[in-house]
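REQUEST ID: PR-0412
SUBMITTED BY: lab tech R.K.
PRIORITY: routine
TASK: structure prediction, single protein chain
INPUT:
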Amino acid sequence: MKIEIDNSLLEEITAAELKRIVAYLKQDYKKRKAGVKIAIFDMDKAKDVAELKRHIDAFELVLKYYAGD
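STATUS: complete
OUTPUT:
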């Protein structure tokens, strides 16, 4: 069975998933910055926080493309 999804629906699905990922990254960022969370990208806290912020910024840029937010 073949299902076709139009572009607008695909963009909505993509935007929703990106929003979910950004929310999780922001939670990890806040926890890691506060020293509560384990390392995500690097064992060094400062490097890890910086990398988390870089990922948040990158995902938000892509989200802006798909959702215009």
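NOTES: The longest helix spans residues 7-34.
REVIEWED BY: pending
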